[in-house]
Amino acid sequence: MSHWSTIKTQITDKEILIKTLTDLGYKVETDGIVNGYRGAKIPAEVLINTETPYNIGFSRQTSNCYEFIMDVWGVELHNPTIKSTEFIKSVNRKYAENKAHATLKKYGYLTGSSVEDNQGNLIISARKY
């Protein structure tokens, strides 16, 4: 049984999204189709190849933010290492980290390490020359 999940995100930068997914170890493709149960298909700008009949996609919405698209049943059944809630949480966290590094670099900062404190806050060391 197919169950499409679409989750709105605050992700706006395609290049940083692709870097984020690559950093997390996923095989990324662009401009393709998200596959669902019994041939259901939805177009997406950024896709993760899960090496199963079901993949994961991100599609830009009119708000300029990307929406996460996945046939939850298919992906989780065929790839038990991907759980939708943990997946989107890890993508959002890594995207925020990569976006922060890119923004700091844009304004002339050199960034160093990123660490998460015991409350889940991301701490990035940066300095400007």
- What's the main sheet like? 5 strands, antiparallel
* Helical amount: 25-40%
Structural class of the helices, strands and pairings? alpha+beta
SSE string: EHEEEEHHEE
- What's the total count of β strands? 7
Quickly count the helices. 3
- Beta-strand share of residues: 35-45%
Distance between the termini: 56 Å
Which residues sit in consecutive blocks of at least 5 with pLDDT less than 50? Answer: none
Average pLDDT level:
91
Q: Gyration radius, to the nearest Å?
A: 16 Å
Shape: elongated
The spatial strand order of the largest sheet comes to 1-5-4-3-2
Q: Helices, strands, pairings?
A:
Elements: E1 4-8, H1 14-23, E2 27-35, E3 41-49, E4 56-60, E5 66-71, H2 72-78, H3 84-106, E6 109-116, E7 122-128
Antiparallel strand pairs: 1-5, 2-3, 3-4, 4-5, 6-7
What does this structure look like?
α1 (14-23) crosses α3. With 129 residues, the protein is an alpha+beta fold. A hairpin with a 5-residue loop joins β2 (27-35) and β3 (41-49). The termini are far apart. It has helices at residues 14-23, 72-78, 84-106; strands at 4-8, 27-35, 41-49, 56-60, 66-71, 109-116, 122-128. The model has no long low-confidence stretch (mean pLDDT 91). The strands form two sheets. The chain has a five-stranded antiparallel sheet. It has a two-stranded antiparallel sheet with strand order 6-7. The chain has a domain at 4-91. 31% of the residues lie in helices and 38% in strands.
What would a concise description of this structure say?
The chain is α+β, with helices and mostly antiparallel strands. The chain has three helices and seven strands, in the order E-H-E-E-E-E-H-H-E-E.
